[in-house]
Amino acid sequence: MRIYLIEWRNRLVLLCGAAVLAAAIGFFTQSNPVFMLQIGLLIAFFIPAAVLSLRDHAALVPYIVGCWVFSPELRRIVDWAQGEYTQLSLILILPHIVTCALVFSIMKNRANRSLREEFKSNKFYPFIIAAYAYATLLGLILNKIAGMYDMIGYLAPALIAPYFFLRPFTPAELNKMIRICVSFALLVSIYGWIQYLTLPAWDAFWIENANMTSIGNAAPLDFRMFSTMTSQGPVAVFLGTMLVIMIVNKEWRGKWGWIGVMLVASALSITLVRSAWVTLILGLIGYIACMDKGKKISKIITIIVIGACFYAVISKLPGAENVTARLETFQNMGDDNSFRARIGLVIDATPVILKNPLGGGFGSVGRGTVLGDGTSFAGLGSLDNGYLGVFAIFGVVGGLAFFIGIYLLFRYLLAMRHSDIKVLAIATIIQLLVAFFFGGGLQAYQGVLFWLFVSMALAQPNPKEFRL
Questions:
Q1: Tell me, what's the pLDDT at 420?
Q2: Which of 74, 94, 312, 328 has the most other CB atoms within 10 Å of its CB?
Q3: CA 436 to CA 330: how far, in whole Å?
Q4: How many CA atoms does the CB half-sphere of 118 hold within 13 Å?
């Protein structure tokens, strides 16, 4: 009888909460149809995530990844349809909110395994958690709304780790998740080429109004492809990460095979993001270094052949002269404006960070600063250097704790029994550390990809016993 009453009480609370939420939305949006549309889209995308999470469905993680990859395009279409560019559209937080749906599954399965014992026995957890907790506290105190937004950008992707720990997946389910992510990369590449050759009206509208001068001009073949994502940098990171997966494993490539690899590589090339190629190459080297000895030679030969084929094809593609000119800048980096600007940023920002060893917390650097006073700590407005960004956010001690945690995580993965997913997780960490030289962090889409592949490995059954 008591259990029955508790169930009805929970349902009543949920019903009342939904009624209050509906009333609040109606009250605040009755004179703002644009805001009403954005709220409606948030709810429409969150409900499937909540249902998938409550049902422990394996499609939840691919759904979350899809929201991170495709929601920026949805925002552009909505802005274009409304005829008004909105710098602070609520659709910006759509993937954050959807990712938070992981909490339902975590709470439902919290009795399956002991998170406390896992955190105690693996020392990389406390270091990363301590750094995150410090940056959260500092960000909420100093940066208010900007700190809250950035906090969600870091913490929501990190929920993937306890989700995989508590909700076991079969190897077949994990492989299917990876193949779906690869399918997203293929869709992004196909649309990327459509965008590059024709430039749909909503994408042109965004280029003209977003003041993203690094993208180029609002004309076909005269800009850097950004496909369905926010800019050329994020799409390059996503495609580069997926390329490593597609190249090293036949099963993960799916039915598209090597044609899919060439398609994604060609789309990556028209982003004109050089750092993505450096990250891709070093990620492949890291993956091959951890492979079984008998497979290394054949994989190296395969990569060389594919690279040669792509080099022969790239000169025939539309916009080939832009790609070639961009690659040629590797030969004389001293005269490259972008490279010199990055060096200047390191020189200028380092003394500022050292003078402020406590850091600025979440919301102090990156694009989230537009929600605050518009200024960024140490001039790191776009996080053009991930290492500086870490120390600017977490402070000197917190930054060291963060990197110690990543190092201990790397050692832990190395000690696990061999599997393709373990090697993928190691390659993911290598790619992250290389990408930090060019920008980014463990928030948003990059954090989702990092925690996804690392958590897949950490949740593998019967790992080699190794505790740090």
A1: 86
A2: 94
A3: 19
A4: 14
Amino acid (one-letter) located at 410:
F
pLDDT per residue as tens digits for the range 121-164? 788 999 999 999 999 999 999 888 888 999 999 999 999 999 99
Our CA dihedral for 38, 44, 49, 51, rounded to 10 degrees, sits at: 150
* pLDDT interval class at 5 (50, 70, 90): very low
* Predicted pLDDT of residue 459: 84
Residue 133: what residue type?
Answer: A
| Locus of tokens 């720990």 | 165
Q: What is the pLDDT of residue 6?
A: 47
| Confidence check: pLDDT of 418 > 50 | yes
For residues 421 and 124, the answer to whether their CB atoms sit within 8 Å is no
Helices 257-269, 171-198: crossing angle, 10 deg rounding: 50
Chain mean pLDDT for the chain: 84
pTM summary value: 0.88
**CA separation for the pair 311, 318 (Å, rounded):** 14
